[in-house]
Every structure is written in C-alpha cells, then in structure tokens.
Records
---
Amino acid sequence: MTDLSAVKAALRGQSIELPSWAFANSGTRFKVFGQPGVPRTPQEKIADAAQVHRYTGIAPSVALHIPWDTVDDYAELAAYAREQGVRVGTVNANVFQDDDFKLGSVTNPDPGVRAKALDHLFACIGVMDATGSADLKLWFADGTNYPGQDDVRARQDRLAEALEAVRDRLGPDQRMLLEYKLFEPAFYTTDVPDWGTAYAHCLKLGDQAQVVVDTGHHAPGTNIEFIVAFLLREHKLGGFDFNSRFYADDDLMVGAADPFQLFRIMYEVVRGGGYDPAEGIAFMLDQCHNIEAKIPAQIRSVLNVQEATAKALLVDAGALDAAQRSGDVLGANAVLMDAYNTDVRPLLAELREEDGRDPDPMAAFARSGYLEAIAAERVGGRQAGWGA
Ligand code: PSV
Ligand code: MN
Ligand code: MN
C-alpha cells in the first residue's frame, strides 16, 4: 500500500522550471502567428511565468536564454523575478543565431569563431554570477551537412577543449549541463548527437558536468526511461528539457503526445532517487506554443508533469519488488499499470485546496482576466520573439 500523505508531501516539494521563450512569439519556419499581449521584454516574460507559479504552486523558477533575454543589469532582473514571486533559474547559452556560427560554434574550423563562441559561454557564466543561477545549459547546433565537410574527429577535440575551458570558469556551486540532440539543424553529423557522447564528455569533465535529457531529441522508439535510469545510477543526469515529440523536435506540450512515456520517465526518476532534491535534477520545460495561448499552455504542461509524477509516486514499490523477485512478469506489470491507470486528478485538486489554491488552475487562470489585461496593456513596442 502506498502512503498517500507521503505522496502528497513529495508532490508539495515539486519544482518545475519554465522557459522564458515559451511566453514569446514563436512559430515554424513557415509562419510565426503573433498573439496579443505577448511580452516585449524579459521582465514581461518573467511576469507571465509568475502567473503559472501562482496557479500551480510548483513552477518557482524561469530559465533565461542569452542573448534572447539580454538586459543591462542581470542582478536587477533577478530582483524583479523575486518581486514577482519566482527566481531566475538555468542560463541557456545561445551560440546558434549568429552568422559567424554557420559552420559551428565551439567546433568551428576557424579558431576566431571558436573564441567568439567561448566568450559567449563565459558571458553566460557572468550572467549566472549576477543572477545567482546554478546551471549553465549548453546545447550546440554544431555539426555538418555533408560527408567530408569537416573533420568529424577534430570537431570532437575542439568540443572537448571548449567544454574544459567552460568547466574551469565555473564557480564551485555552478554546473554545466550538456544537452544532446540527434539531428537538426545539422543533418549529416551532429557533434553531440546522443546521450553516450554527452556522457563521455561529462565523465571526463568531472562532477560539475552532467547530461540534460531533452525528451524531444531522440529517434522514434528510443527508450528514454532507460537512458534516465542509466544516467541517474551514474549521478550524471543533470536535468530534463521536457516537451512532446510526435515526429522530431516538436517542442509541444509535455505529456501531450505520450503521457505513458512521461509516466515511465518519472517512475525511473523516482525509482533512481532523482526526485530527492539532493540529487539536484533540474526539471525544466523546453517548449514553444505557436498556435495555442502561451500561459495556459504552460499551466497545462506543468499539470501534465505533476500528474505523471503523482502516478509514479503511487507505484506500490513493495508489491513491485515482490513480483519482480518472484519472476511474476504479469503481476509486476500490473503493479505499474495500476499506478498509471489511477485518476490522480481528485488527489491533486484536494492537495491544492489544502494549500489554499484553486483546485482547477486552468479555470482559475482563465477567470483571472490576465490575458485580457496584458492584451490591452502591452500595445506598442516590439514584441519579443523566440529568437529575437
Ligand atoms: C534545441 O533544439 C533546444 O532543445 C535547446 O535546448 C535550445 O536551447 C532550445 O531548443 C531552444 O528552444
Ligand atoms: Mn532543449
Ligand atoms: Mn530542442
């Protein structure tokens, strides 16, 4: 039997980080559909993110993307976030939107371009120092499009060199989180294409380097929960970029495409001790909302993660262990499926009510009139776009 009060206590301690870019205009390469009231500044993105925390109670931090969220004074931005009831979280380094990075950033064959990329990564550590952020997230668009285009092995050497330089620049309480992605924008080779490559680099870099699993960055059919279990066992899982993947890197709402996969991932997190704050796993969303309203989509995403987590916490560990040890294949599977098939929505509504929150965050936010207010207030100025 699972202790429901322990499940509730664990759920109260949950913390999901929101991406600042989810609140900005975004789109596909075919069209960006603007929405009224979309933030014009990093401050307005943080204010919108604070709404998600207000109604869910479990989204207390906001990840920045530099230079998308460039401001003159980052300490002031962090203070602004605190006033809004949230804090600045991970700093995501963007070394993919400058013409100089056409052939790569830290793996570029041109040493001058590599130095420019490294300077940006150092500047991001400066942002962390100013905001008090602990994590630097590194995703490189680096790779090649054609066989022979560049020396694949030399690119690994350049990558290792840059990562070491970043590691040496980190403060004692800071981490570097290395994200992998199967393909895109490079289509022939990608310099960090999979968890094995990221893991191998992080292993050499030491304790301050860990791997980020972006759930959208795998080939169809990849068993992501196995990767999670493996990395956790090695204490090399630094965090998640959660989103849904129907086809490739869709960046749609987590839990939309495959809620069962999300449950299986969260089960391995719980099983491997990754839910314990001491393990330091950063649970982040990395999503864009191109056709749906952004703040409610973030609320829905947070709730989807919360529901999957509640189900994972409900797994009867004793019964599962007994079934596994006795080789009861169907019994073990049934224990897991019982938890997955539990409707946890009443439990979560009860939890919110006990904490003085509205039991239905989606409805409460819709009633608040916030979307109408920002549509009226935020006229004029240039809307901050995803990538702008
Ligand atoms: C790359 O596809 C990625 O997942 C990285 O995390 C980037 O920083 C992010 O998307 C931008 O949306
Ligand atoms: Mn990502
Ligand atoms: Mn991605």
---
Amino acid sequence: MAKKQFKAESKRLLEMMINSIYSQREVFLRELISNASDAIDKIYYKALTDDRYQFNKDSYYIKVSADKENRTLTISDTGIGMTKEELEANLGTIAKSGSLAFKNETELKDGHDIIGQFGVGFYAAFMVADVVTVISKALDGDEAYKWESKGADGYTIVPVKKETVGTDIILKIKENTEDDSYDEYLEEYRLKSIIKKYSDFIRYPIKMDVKTSKKKEGTENEYEEVVEEQIINSMVPIWRKNKSELTDEDYEKFYNEKHYGFDKPLKHIHISVDGTIRYNAILYIPENIPFDYYSKEFEKGLELYSNGVLIMNKCADLLPDYFSFVKGMVDSEDLSLNISREMLQHDRQLKLIAKNINKKIKSELQALLKNEREKYEEFYKSFGRQLKFGVYSDFGANKETLQDLLLFHSSKDKKLVTIEEYVTRMPEDQKYIYYATGESVERIDKLPQTELVADKGYEILYFTEDIDEFAIKMLMSYKEKEFKSVSSSDLGFEPDESKNVSEEEKNENKELFDYMKNALTGKVTDVRISKRLKTHPVCLSTDGEISIEMEKILNAMPD
Ligand code: ADP
Ligand code: MG
C-alpha cells in the first residue's frame, strides 16, 4: 500500500499545529462534533435546492461511543460523507476547508450556520489519538473509503465496506504517559461533560450509550444496569427562540443551568440583532451581589459563542467595568476567530457588539428605574456603588451614560431620588444642588451645616458612601446646576441681614478666638464667629474644594 506523503513543510506545520494551537486537549471533541454537524447541515442545504434529496430531520444525528477495552472513541455522523477525492483534498491538505468552500459555493442565506472555516480542526484529534481512522461514504458516491493516519508521517486511503451514507471517525486513544492521562476520553461522564460544555447547542442530536440503573420489570425494588441511548445536548439554543415563545421561567432555568448565579435573576434582557452585525444575546442582572464581586478575584465577562459553539467562557471585552455585574451570553456568526477558535482575530465586530450591548443595558436599567422603581432600588442597593465608580473612573468619561442611573438619599421624605428628580423640583431661586456628606442619614441629619440650607426650604442630597462625593466631583454639574456642599462657605444665597456678622461682633470676642486658634494650631486655619448655626454651638467647615469627608478618605488611603 503506497503511502502518500505530506509535503515537508506541511509535516512540520502539522506537528506544530497539533501541539500548539489549542490550550486545552478536550476541544478535539468540539472540533469533530462541529465537523459532523457541518456534514449534516450540508445535506440539509442540498435538499433545499435539489429535489433528488430529502431532509427528514429525525434521521440525522451524531453518535459518540467509547470502547474502553480497545481504547477507541468513535464519532459517527449521518452527514454528507466524503468521496475518495474529498478525503484526499480535505483531510490530506492542511488548512483546506471543504466547509468554507461549500459555504462560498452555496449562496444560501442560512449558509452561515456552517461552523468550519480554517481546515485545521480535524487534526486536533491527534492531540489524544495515535491513529485516526476515517470511514466515509459520500451521498454522491457508490463506494466507501477508509482514510487512516498516524499523524505527521502521512496517510493511506483504501476502499472499504460501509452501508449507510455518513462518516465514522475512529480515534485510537493514546496510552497514558508519566505526565499525561488520556483515559478520561474514554469515560462516559467526562465525554458527556465535554459535549455539554462546548456542543450543547449543536442543532442535531448528539447521542451516547449511557449506563443507567433501572427497576427490573416485575420486581419491587430490584435494579439492573441497562445501556440506554441518550441525547446529550439541548440542541435548540434558547437565544435563537422567539421572545414571545419564552416565559420568565425559561430564562430563569437557563440562568441556573448555566450557573450564572445561584439566585434568581432580577431581570433578563434578550437581544436579537440582525443588522450590519448579527448577534443574539441573553443577559441577566443578578438579584444578589456575587460573594466575590467587590474583590480582586471577581472576573467580569460574558460567554461567547460562535454559531452555537462555545468559544470563550468569560469574554471581558464585552462589558464595561461599570456593568461588570451583568451575566449571560452572546452568540454571533460574524466573529472573525483565530484558528484555535479560542480567541478573536481582530475585534472590530466584538467592539460593535460591546457598544450595542452597553446601550441596551443602559436603556433597560432606565426602564427599570422608570417603571419598576422598587426593583430598581433593590438592584441599586447591590450594584449602585459600581455605577458610581463608573462615573468616577476614566476621568468621568462615562458620566453621560451613568448620571441618570444614580440614586441618593435625600432630605425630602428620606427617600432615594435621582438627580433629575431633585433638579426638577428645585425652587426657582435655588442656585445649586446641595449635598451633605456623612456616615449615615441620621448622622447627616444632625450636622449643623445642613440647617441653614434646610431652613431655606432647599432639598439636600445625603452622601453616605465614600465614593459619592468623588463621583459628584466628576459630574461637576447636572443640567447646568452645580453641586454644592452644605459646608461650603459660599452657599449661593445671602443669609438674612440679621445673620451678617458685624465688625463690632467680630472684634468683641477677638481675644477668645485668637486664644482658641493658638490652641488648635495646625488643626484649623481660623476660628470665626458664625450666625449660620441654630442649635449647635460650633461646627467645622472648609473653604476649599475638598470637604472634610473627602479629606478623611484621602488621608486613609495608602500613599
Ligand atoms: P474545517 O471544519 O474548519 O473546514 P477541519 O479540519 O475540521 O476544518 O475539516 C476539514 C474538512 O474536512 C471540512 O471542511 C470538511 O470538508 C471535511 N470533513 C471533516 N469532517 C467531516 C465529516 N465528519 N463529514 C464530512 N466532511 C468532513
Ligand atoms: Mg472543523
């Protein structure tokens, strides 16, 4: 039997590729199953345009079977198969993708469902197998052929008997070495979990013979082990379904199945975009803060799928930091992937999707704020802090996006209010948006500085979190109204005549004040008489940009 040789460069290329493209061995199964799915898709597309073929969905499937004794793993499909020429062209030529060619030839609108494009995935089989045997019978061919290879040293093709159209890929799983174990690729539970992880949304059934224990017929509680053929994958991705077909429970179920969180999501967002960029996404706003959310360990990101096949577990580029609490997934057929299909080639499409998603999250949060205030406040309790960090970071670059999502406690009815609500009900003569900082609403209420503003009948925002004042400094103003601390020396209104301190009064107690100033050297810059105070004998105030609260925080920060 004459061996056909790979060209020298290809030989090196194959070795390099097998060992360096993929970061995880388990993806070999994803690649072979994707090929099987493509092969079935091709019959489907053929049937659409050619009356000689019919497509009856029920007769198409993929089957994965492990044989521990013989150390073989077989992936069979009832797809289009390969002729001798195709075996040679597609599996004998590295980086030749029959699937890509098919996609280009058949200009079917739905042709983008086909996954293959680089012509290298098949060789991933050599990461776990010493020998790969392909037995295939093509839809258009009479004879079946067997292609076999041990990797870099070439391949053989011989005729073989096979009754049905389709392809069997038989992997002779490698023996364990000192460093590596390959046994797992023959274990039922392991294979199942790999299929679930990467190929759950392949549109054709992926079957496996699974051992289960069943009650013996005619007995009370005697069980026997039986082998049962099961479908492992969910097949229809929920994100491809019509929103109107789905219930809240469906979304909650998906959230739990995907382990996005253990809580119930507060809200789901289902996006289907079919424009210059096409993608589907299901996003969730969690109800509870993940335990590690405000820690360094927390990793933001969405799952990224390309045509229903998982590419990345946590794609961080899809979410800005201020929306890092969002969970969920994105599926797009328009991504340019690199050949390992683990990373993106260049991220123009991804940037577009990210921008789009960002807008959508913002508008959904605004809608929640407007229509379901209680829910929004619940959300805000968990993640409001993150939004404020968002305003503060990047020199306030995101303030336009975020300012209307902020809530603060207010002196009016002790409720949470938006800045807009505050500004809308400002009396005409009120110049500034007033705020007071302190540890809690109760503490702020007792601040002597608030009295003068409150007396004027003006509302005051209560800043109780350390980030609040920093965020507001970034906003500077809202609808041309500046923010002003109640401790500021210029409050923007003239106190009553009677509250002006006369020269006489100033001098009256000069000695006492000088004495106090001396005693507090280095701690205060001045001691003055004030008529702003009503029920308090004394208060601390600042003249500069930095309030006492900010000063405290800045002093507490490590240098
Ligand atoms: P890709 O899937 O990116 O095209 P692969 O290396 O995975 O690259 O596969 C190379 C080619 O081999 C495919 O494009 C397809 O034409 C052919 N092929 C692989 N597996 C099968 C299969 N199970 N049935 C039919 N054709 C297949
Ligand atoms: Mg492939």
